[in-house]
Amino acid sequence: MSIERADIRALQDVLHHEIPLSQQIGLVAEDYDGECLALHAPLAPNINHKSTAFAGSLNATATLAGWGLTWLLLREHGLRGVIVIHESSARYELPVADDFVATCRRPPEHAIERFLAALRRRGKARLALTVEILDAAGRVAVVFTGSYVAFIELESERQG
Amino acid sequence: MSIERADIRALQDVLHHEIPLSQQIGLVAEDYDGECLALHAPLAPNINHKSTAFAGSLNATATLAGWGLTWLLLREHGLRGVIVIHESSARYELPVADDFVATCRRPPEHAIERFLAALRRRGKARLALTVEILDAAGRVAVVFTGSYVAFIELESERQG
Q: Of A155, B14, B18, B53, which has fewest CB within 10 angstroms of its CB?
């Protein structure tokens, strides 16, 4: 099994175990190629009065896509920590009338390096991520930005 | 039964019927006094890895509080229409370690009048709303703003 395949399975388990609502949403960690994470959700449990996807489900899925990418970055660098979202914004540009996919791309390497350096130095760092939700035709239906904060226990704190 | 009491029961039915995920979230339309709508949700189905409320659940509940207040305003003025959210932002300021309540206050009367006038003239209008989520101690844990768009069928369109 490739590293990415193992990563996506581990992420799926973590999401379903740690955030039970992700099971109600029907979330499936679908793909991670080392560059872009894709979370899939079916329309049925997330449907609204217009027979399209409920904005709250879209937002929750986008929130988890950014959380998941941050989790994968920590794992890739052998770090374990707690990740929370501090703020987010979302534009709902098109209704989503079918199953949907939330994609979160790795930020530029310099942003990742700055994030990891701050995390190792201070035990806490912030990462800004963009998530797009695509409809079945591949059009961008939702644009989401999230500011995530990761916390790790520093070596010095464990010893002290 | 007071008007507000009848309104809140009707809203509860609409939310559970039209947005099934609101049932998974355990959402209860708790109170509407004509000024402020309060939606309650239990922690258990919305819990996350830190034993606090999942940001996606908080966001979905806030989204529905703004949607609900818009629905109540239309109903109060004898209008029926479709309401969607166009954009939103959320700041997660404090973790929510217990059941929570999302409150959405009526905007100033001049904003409501402008919204209703545009709606009757063009069949479409936008309303900006703020939602706060309070933790069990009554502190503001999440500040959410949403831009909602309502659509109604105009008399002229029905006749034409």
A: A155
